[in-house]
Amino acid sequence: MSELQSLSAFDGVSAAGRYGNPNGTAGVTLTERANLGLATLEVRKGQTVALAEKVQAMYGAALPVGPVSASGTGVRFVGIAPGQWFAVSETLPNEDLAGDLATKLQGLASVADHSSGRAVMRLEGPAVRDVLAKGLAVDIDPSVFIDGAAALTNIGHIGVLVWRDDEAFDLTVFRSFAGSFYGWLQASAAEFGIDVVT
Amino acid sequence: MSQINRLTGKGLVDHSKTVSFQFDGQHLEGHPGDTLASALLANGIRLVGRSFKYHRPRGILTAGSEEPNALVELRTGARREPNTRATTIELYDGLDAASQNRWPSLRYDLLSINQLASPVLSAGFYYKTFMWPASFWEKLYEPMIRRAAGLGYPSKQTDPDRYEKANAFCDVLVVGGGAAGLSAALAAARTGACVILCDEDFVLGGRLLSERGEIDGQSTQDWAKSAVAELESLPRCRIMRRTTVFGVYDGGTYAAVERVSDHLPEPPAHAPRQRLWRIVAKQSVICAGGFERPIVFGDNDRPGVMLASAVRTYVNRFGVTPGRNAVIFADNHEALRTASDLADAGVTVRAIVDPQPQPSATAEQVATETGALYINGIIDAVSGAYGIKSVRIKDAQGASKTIDCDVLAVSGGWNPALNLTTHLGGKPKWDNALSCLVPGDLPPGMRVAGAAAGQFSLQACLASGEAAGADSARDCGFSPSAPSRPAPTEDGSPVAPVWYVPSSRGKAFVDFQNDVAVSDIKLAAREGFRVPDHVKRYTTLGMATDQGKTSNLNGAALLAEATGRHLGAVGSTTFRPPYTPVAIGALAGHHRGKDFRPTRLAPSHAWAVEQGAVFVEAGAWLRALMFPKPGETAQETVDREVANTRTNVGVCDVSTLGKIDVQGSDAGTFLDRVYINGFSKLAVGKTRYGLMLREDGFAMDDGTTARLAENHFFMTTTTANAVKVSQHLEFCQQVLWPELDVQTVSQTEQWAQFAVAGPKSRKIIEALLDSGQDISNEAFPYMACGSFTACGGAPARIFRLSFSGELAYEIGVPARFGDGLIRTIMRAGAEFGIGPYGTEALGVMRIEKGHAAGPELNGQTTAHDLGLGRMMSKKKDFIGRFMGQREALNEAARAAIVGLKPLDPKMRINAGAHLVKRDAVANAENDQGYVTSQAYSPELKSFIGLAMLSDGPARYGEVVKVCDPLRDYETLAEVCSPHFIDPEGERLRV
Question: Per residue in B878-929, pLDDT tens?
Fold first, then answer.
């Protein structure tokens, strides 16, 4: 293990606590998802079918087509563009996921590590849709934005990848934007109250 | 004096509670449920403002958002807001409002002297009066006009409130919550469709609140209440009160502003003042209602002259009578209800004046019932400047009669509020039967119902609303039940409106807010204006913030008459968003102050803050500009940082440069095509500088690209162009060469990267690397790259690159280790005298080395111009090659990069200065180029510069004049190679 201290994207940005409206249950809860494995995979020329088969075999997931995600053993694959997926893993943390994918999918997909390049947070709670509506120009009604649905879009001029996991929403932004994004979130969630959990 | 005009037991206001407020410093009381206008009227206040041009005393004309007269400054201090319509301000305890456009007081206003000058202040006044002399415009006329213009004054303090934006999606959007809107929303929402109902008012019901009618055996007010209750019980129906839909955009997108806290003294903690909504609806039903038209006659703007429908609103909804002695002046039967409602409320109705050519038995009947005089005639004169005292009525036979009154209720018929139907270019069409404009072609997915569609009767509103709501739901895939409302029966043939009273004396106003009178429109017609949009611009008719809601059609009718045309042939002006004024704050939302745009922070940011760094914005990034020590000037700081890097070692965060991962079996070929030089033959473990051109042959961006593996490259771009280059590569991949096996993705944020530069840099990198890894000059020469581990196993990429011209390395680690790495570098480098340097020192060193950067890659320079012509491969095609062959881009006289050394080393070479021959006059004809970059070189102890100079590379040794007329500065400089320091690059290779 390196002697260099590993800092999450929200280090120095957020601090645990209750913010905004102090009354009642917080409308939304923010949990940073630090140390996730994050990687993009982009299919190599002519390997679409082979890649899908390999991912199914290795990770037990059917690579989704379109803006939706599919979970396999330990890895969620989020569709971000034709032939491109954003892979997320808790069990293969940090740089491990990209390494694992690159080895197993060699020749089928180009893999790039983003485990340090993104801030990932989970938002949930009774007002989560109301908060997100203040920035997300995407219909997130449960009947439209179904479990697993994903969107690559922007919030408050900041590029964001969002996917729904059951009743929670996971959001990723570029690491350098963590502070600005947190500012938008704090302002937007204030009327409902926000619990920041670390 | 306390609410002398309040009617007991009437209206929807809460009589059991009182609310205190101030108007022009006077303490007054009203009730919850009042608007400022109704509360003022309740207190017997009729004079509320002064008009725009002539400063005429004005009162309250309407009871809605179309109000042109009763504009006030609301609140005080930082929250002061000018030109708010008293008719839409919800009364709250402590409200403080002031009249505007008057001095010293509302009653005694010095600028009302403008009325005497009214013959001069006619249409086109500015154009005619301030023509000559031209030089007076900027210095005298314009400042003078600006001082006199405008109504209220905004606060000049920072707005203390928050604004935000939000998005909503629905099947059916219903705009307006009156009879038609409630019916439409009910019909749609009952099917299970997702419905949003927006209403600008704080109580839903629209005209239902203002009339004494019945629906299904209930009073209209009660019916509205139960309709709202049902809508609120439906889970997929959302009611948005105090929300104005003000614009229609493509793709079923609607803009709305929700006045979240405007009805409160100040927003509650954590709540915004206003919220801007972007509503995307599959279908919409516009039920915006209608606007009653005034009749134009002399002195029709006197306080106390009010629209007949507004009088009913004040009586029935607010329990307020605008006066005690009323006269009705109306050309239609609907307005007769005003007489009935006033009489019912115990107000004396003195007369009903009917300007139609034939007397009306119905009107006469109502007159008898209400104890009023019926006169088939016109209002000939109005007396009472600060509030109407009497009117002189002239009957059809020419006999005059003066009747005392304090309110004159006027109606010239109704216009549909069709504004939203025209925002996407739809043209209203003339309806001959209704004598008004009705919606024309509608945008996809939009329906119109109720008065907005010209369906003015209550029956018609209910039926057309229900049908439109049901049809909208059906189009979204839901199954509405059969219509329950019968189609309305025709209630007699409509009569032609009376637009204006020609014989009347006094100034007759068409547009109250902009003080446009009949005489102005007639003048415009005489001067040749025929098109309403031209007349609008010439006379300012309909150009005020109310967009002529009460005046446009009357103006068009006058224009039609003056130009001898039928009104239907005259056409109309164009409505544009916003429907009613929208605060800029709402449009900005969260993005104000430092949140104007997001900020990106580099991995070493927190550390740099600790070091006392000064930061500079580079796009969205904040980068350390320099690291000053106490007592240093900026120049001393930069000199020290440069000197220390050149003698010892310096470190700089270069993480902000764009980093793009390029993979695939055709990655080399791909790079060959985007760069002017070759990359497919670059050896694994090597890095190469590359320049890419735009399709037109001009330089786009530069940077280094490393080959990490056979099929794996790692490209860097400038900080400024990182996104542009990414997009360019995506375009090349997807559109130009989809056949290539190449994949690209931005990895800018993944790697924290630091340049460690200076003669002692190798020692530090060696100290960071885990043991057993060799970066000696032999094993890891200049331009080498490779993957290593550092600091106990952290993955690290090392590139032996140099922007400074010294022995240098860039070391990259995953960004989560970035903060740790900069601290470790500083610790490891302490014994070698390491110092951080910022972008300013970086810039000095690159100028000393003659490296092109942003000021040279300015979109006007080619590879040749940048001294990189020889890099252009002749063995392959690449983007920009063909267009780069154009003759003008290859002339010797073209400006190309050179260095400049001042003859006197203490003289600056100002960036932006132009170059002429030594003895030439500094003018455009003699211009031979311009300075792009300048710096002070501590090593050369001289200012230096980079410049683009005509035929520059052939002119080394020549002395040119550096001319900066903007700063009144000239100096002489010698043209030289741009490589000021170590031109052979020996320091790089040690």
Answer: 999 999 999 999 988 999 999 999 999 999 999 999 999 999 999 999 999 9
> Is A21 an interface residue toward B (CB < 8 Å)?
yes
Chain B residues in contact with A9 by the CB 8 A cut-off are 816
Strands (DSSP E) found in A35-108: 37-43, 69-71, 75-81, 84-89
CA terminus-to-terminus distance, chain A: 23
Residue B101 contacts by C-beta under 8 Å, 6 or more apart in sequence? B49, B50, B51, B52, B55, B109, B111, B150, B151, B152
A173 CA to chain B: closest CA distance, Å?
A: 10
Q: Which residues does residue B353 pair with via DSSP β-bridges, in sequence order?
A: B329, B375
Query: Which residues in chain B touch residue A45, judged by CB atoms under 8 angstroms apart?
Result: 664-666, 739-741
Partner A contacted by B280 (CB < 8 A):
yes
Residue with tokens 């970035």: B818
Interface residue of A110, A139, A157 to substitute, partner B, most B CBs within 10 Å: A110
Could you say which residues from 929 to 988 on chain B have a Cβ atom under 8 Å away from some Cβ of chain A?
Answer: none
CB B747 within 8 A of CB B661: yes
> CA-CA distance, B520 to B120, in Å (whole number)?
11
The CA radius of gyration of chain A, in Å to the nearest whole number, is 17
Residue B114 in contact with residue B196, Cβ under 8 Å?
A: no
Which residues on chain B are in Cβ contact (under 8 Å) with A177? 598-600
Concatenating the DSSP letter of every residue in B900-938 gives: EEESSTTS---TT-EEEETTS-SSGGG--EEEEEEEEET
Q: What is the rounded distance in angstroms from the CA atom of residue B953 to the CA atom of residue B892? A: 10
Residue B698 to residue B554: CA distance in whole angstroms: 59
Report field, pTM of the whole predicted structure over 0.80: yes
State how far the Cα of B184 lies from the Cα of B474, in Å rounded to an integer: 12
pLDDT in tens, B401-453: 999 999 999 999 999 999 999 999 999 999 999 999 999 999 999 999 999 99
Cis status of the peptide bond prior to B578, with omega within 30 of 0:
yes
Q: Cβ contact (<8 Å) for A7 and B816?
A: yes
Query: Residue B727: pLDDT above 70?
Result: yes
pLDDT digit string (tens) for B481-537? 999 988 777 665 667 899 999 876 789 999 999 999 999 999 999 999 999 999 999
> Which of B559, B563, B517, B508 has its CA nearest to residue B540?
B517
How far is it, in rounded angstroms, from Cα B335 to Cα B332?
Answer: 6
CA A145 to chain centre: 15
The residue of chain B with its CA nearest to that of A158 is B598
How many helices (H) does chain A have, and how many strands (E)? 4, 12
What residues does A163 pair with on adjacent strands?
A150, A170
Q: Do the bridges between strand B650-653 and strand B835-836 make them parallel or antiparallel, or are there none, so unpaired?
A: parallel
The DSSP letter of residue B221 is H
Q: Are the C-beta atoms of residues A184 and A158 closer than 8 Å to each other? A: yes
Instruction: Name every chain A residue with its beta carbon within 8 A of the beta carbon of B820.
Output: 2-7
Looking at residue B183, the DSSP 8-state letter turns out to be H
Q: Does A74 touch chain B (CB under 8 A)?
A: no
SS3 A85: strand
Q: What are phi and psi of B694, to 5 degrees?
A: -75, 170
- At residue B716, the pLDDT reads 98
Give the whole-angstrom CA distance, residue A144 versus residue A126: 18
Pairing, β A118-124 against β A109-113: unpaired
Query: DSSP assignment of B728-774, as one string?
Result: HHHHIIIII-TTS--EEEE-TTTEEEEEEESTTHHHHHHHHBPTT--
Tell me if the bond preceding B104 is cis, omega within 30° of 0: yes
